[in-house]
Amino acid sequence: MFTFMNRFADSGPSVHVAPGTDFTIAGIHVTNSMLYGWAICLAIIALLIWAARRVTIHPKGGFVQYVEAGITFATDLVEGAFTDRAIGRKYVPFFVTLFFFVLLNNWSGLIPGVGDAVQINGHPLLRPMTADLNTTLAIGLVTMIIVYVASVHEVGGFRKYIRHFFMGSPFNPLYFVIGLIEMLTDLTRTLSLALRLFLNMAIGEIVIAVFAYLGGLLAPWSVLSPATALPFTLLELGVGALQAYIFVILSVNYLAIAVNSAHDHDLTEGDVAETMIAASPEAEG
User: Which domain range does residue 124 map to?
Assistant: First the structure.
């Protein structure tokens, strides 16, 4: 046992959290996550265009039906978050694209040959984009910019958007403090989206690397040891899908909260106006 632990401590599994530079072009460092990410993006575009051209009125079997199921799932997810489904329908293309982008990039890290299987200059040649904090920060930033712009547009202006943070009168000290806290919390959403996705994907990579290494140490004693990482690889399929779902549902809800709040506020003001008109002497006459 001590011999086994010493072997593990002396070498240990290869764990890479930061991206590594594969090559440099005109002073620009092209990292392993950038290189692999571009390749996966091109593959996603080609794959979805191919699937779109094979979509028919009558459902087909094979890969196309899974694409259709994913689109239907994401569409219902987006539209269902809004009080007025017509508003949500306008943003379905963006959020469906975001769902497939995150999902397929998460799963791309499980393809054989990605990660430590092929190394260059002491780091993996290829690495999934979502296991790179730079990428998840970029995805989170772009997503939240679109959410903020769409929120301001849908609620009818920046002033109304700010108003949805305050439950009651902003002149009430308690409501004012709560509103400020909500605004500060809102500003952390980009970081929370980025960190949640990055940490889950990076930790999944580390777990698979650790158990693959343990399987290599046990290989002389067991023919099943190379499969020690297989259960965790299969688990990562579910984790990748779950993280894509969480990323999209949170982004959709950030937009829906602002839009629904403004919509409900307008309905309340409309109901009050109708009540006042109905109770007026002119209406009674």
Answer: 22-284
Convert the pLDDT of each residue in 13-35 to its tens digit: 666 777 778 888 888 888 888 88
Q: What share of the chain is helix, strand, coil (3-state, %, to 5)?
A: 75, 5, 25
Q: What's the predicted TM-score (pTM) here?
A: 0.79
Residue 55 is assigned to a structural domain of this protein = yes
For every residue of 68-109, DSSP letters joined together read: HHHHHHHHHHHHHTSSSHHHHHHTHHHHHHHHHHHHHHHHHT
Other CB atoms closer than 10 Å to residue 113's CB: what's the count? 9
Q: Which two tokens stand for residue 71?
A: 């689109």
| Burial class of 9 by CB neighbour count within 10 A (0 to 12, 13 to 18, 19+) | exposed
Number of separate domains in the chain: 1
* 253 belongs to a structural domain: yes
Measured CA to CA, the distance from residue 186 to residue 64 in angstroms comes to 38
